Amino acid sequence: MPSSRADAAFITTPIYYVNDRPHIGHAYTTIISDVWARASRLQGRSTFFLTGTDEHGAKVEKSATARGITPQALADENAAEFQRVLGTFGITCDDFIRTTQPRHIRQVQAFLKALAARGAVTLGTFQGWYDEGQEEYYTETRAKDLGYKSPISGRDLVRASEDNYYFRLSQFQKPLEAFFAANPGFVQPQGRFNEVLGRLRDGLQDVPITRTNFAWGIPFPGDGRHVVYVWIDALLNYVTAMGVGAELANSLGIAESTAPEGSTAGGTGHESDDATLAALAAARSTYWPAQYHVIGKEILWFHAVIWPAMLMALELPLPRRIHAHSFWIADGQKMSKSMGNFIDLPTIDRYIGTYGLDAWRWYMATQGPLQAADADFRAAHFHEMYTAELVNLVGNCASRVGAMVGKYCGGTMPMDSRVGRSVDAGAGAAGVAGMPAPRDAIQCWVVRCGAAVATWREAMEDFDLVLAARAALDLLRDVDAYINRTEPFKLAKDPSNAENMSKVHSILAQCTQTVRVAGVLLLPFLPEKMDQLAQAFGGVPAGCAACGSVSIARVTEAGCSAGDFAALARYGEIPVGAAIAKTALFPRIERKES
RNA sequence: GCCGAUGUAGCUCAGCUGGUUAGAGCGAGGGAUUCAUAAGCCCUAGGUCGGCGGUUCGAAUCCGCCCAUCGGCACCA
Questions:
Q1: ipTM metric
Q2: Residues 6+ apart with CB under 8 A from A54
C-alpha cells in the first residue's frame, strides 16, 4: 500500500465517456480542476492532475457496430477528440488515462481478483427490465417512466435475468457510516453530503459488477464470460493511473494477454510489462489518496459510497474529498439534446474566439455551478462579467498603474521612501505625512496582501474558487480606491516638487507591488494574461527560472516547478529599478446584440 | 410517493448559534474628477427579507402550516 505524501496533491476529473461528444459539462469540470491544480502547484506542492476517457461498455460497442468499426477504433477516435478539445482549454493535466490501456486493464483485473479473494464478491442473479432491441437494462423507475416499453422500438420490455458477480456493498454500511461520521467534510458541498447520508440510511444493497450481455469490457478474471461493468472499471482509473495496483498485478501474474480482443491500447501510455508497471508505481503511487475527486452531481453515489467501499475492501486509503458540482443550464432551460440548447463545442469556440481563453476560464470558474445550485449560462451575463471584472477591474487597474509608473517614474519600479518606517497606505484614519487616509484603517499593504493570500489559500483548500478569485479582485479594488484617494496624478502635476514626487513614487510603488501580488493569485484562473502582467511588472520575481515565466509549470516536467510561494506571493518582491510597462490585458469587446 | 433543500433589492447572491437605520457584486439613474481600456471613485435604488400563524421584550434569523421552485431516490459517467 502506498503511503501518501503531505507535500503532494492529486486531483482528478471523472474520465469522460467516449460515446459522448465534448460539451460544456466536460469543459467545466476539467477547467475548475485545472484551476485548482495550478493553484496547488503555485503553492509549491507536488501536484498530479489526472483526466482521461472511459472507453468500455455496451453503448460504445453498439455505436461502433452501427458505424461498422471496432469499438477500439471508435474509442481511439473519440479519445483523441477529447484530448484535443481539453488541450484547447489550457488544461495542464499530468496524464490522460484511457481505460483500454493495458496498464489499466491489468490493474483492474488484479483489483477484482483481490476483491474476490477477500470475499467481497459473490455470484448472484440480476433481474431487470430488458430492452431486447437495444440490448440494455433499464432501472425499475426508468422502466416505469417508459411504461415498460422500449423508448426506441416501442416493444414491451421483458423481465430478464442474468448471472452476475456482485460487489458486497451491503457489508460496508457500518464502516461507511463510521467513516462519514469521522469525515464530515468528505463530500462537498454539504447539501450533497446530506443526500448521501440520507440514502445510506435506507440501507445498502449489493451491486452487480459484471455483465454478460455484451463483450466490450475488461474480462472478469476467472470467468471470461463476464466483462467488468463499466463503472467499476471507470472508478478504478484513479488508482490504476498512479500504479497503485502494479504490485498486485505483478504478484498475481496478470498479463496483458488477458486484455479483451481488439484492445490495442492506443494513446499515450503503452506500459505493458511488469517493469513498466513497477516504474509507474514508483513514480506515482505516493500521490494516492487523491486530495480531490471533482465530479458532477450525477455520479456522486458511485464516488461517495461505492468507491470508498471498494477501497475499503481493497484496504487502500480513501480519497480525502469529493467535490460534486451541479449543472449548467442555458438561458434558464435545462440543456438537452432534444431541446437542442446544449452549449456545445462550436459555441464554446465562439466565446473563446471573441473573448479569449482566459475569459472563458474565468467565467467557468467564477460563475459556474460550483455549489449545490445549477448555474445559468447567459451570453449577456458572460459579457457583463467579462467587462466588469476583467476589463474594468483587472485590466484597467493594471493599465493605470503601469501608465503612471511610465509617466512619473520613468517606467521603472519606484522607491517607496517610507520603507523602513511604514510601508503602509496610511497607518490609521489620519494617514501618514499628509497623505490622504485610505478607505480603511487596515490598509497596510503588507498586511493586506498577506491577508488576501491567506484567504486565497484557505478558499482553494476548500475548492471555493469564487472566494479565492474575490480575494484577488478585492486587492485590486483597494488599489483603485487608494489611487483615487491619494491622487498621485495630481501630486505629479509639478515634477519639480520633490516632496510631492516622493509621495507619488511611494504611492505607485505600493500599487505596483500589490497589483503584482493580485496577479499571482489570479494566475491559476488567467494563466496567459497574468503571465503577461508578470512580465510587464518587473519580469520574473520568483517564478520558474527554467521556463522564464511565473506561469505554473508542470511538476512532471523535469526541472520546472513552481517557485517558493511565500516569496512569489509576498508584497514587495519587485526590486526598485525593475522595468514596469503599461500593458493592455483585456480588450473591451463591443457586444453585438443577437 | 419517500427524503432533502431553497424562496432576501431588476439580476446573482451574503446574512453563524434571534437584538441598533436588512448587506455585497452586477445592472440602472445622478454627481465630482482625469492616471487609466468613456475605466476608477462618490451618492441613489426606499426590497412587506415567499404567505399565514406561533414562541419571544425583540425574528429575515426559532417552531408549525401553506404556496412556489429545485434536488436525490441505486446500476445512469
A1: 0.87
A2: A14, A15, A16, A17, A18, A99, A230, A233, A234, A237
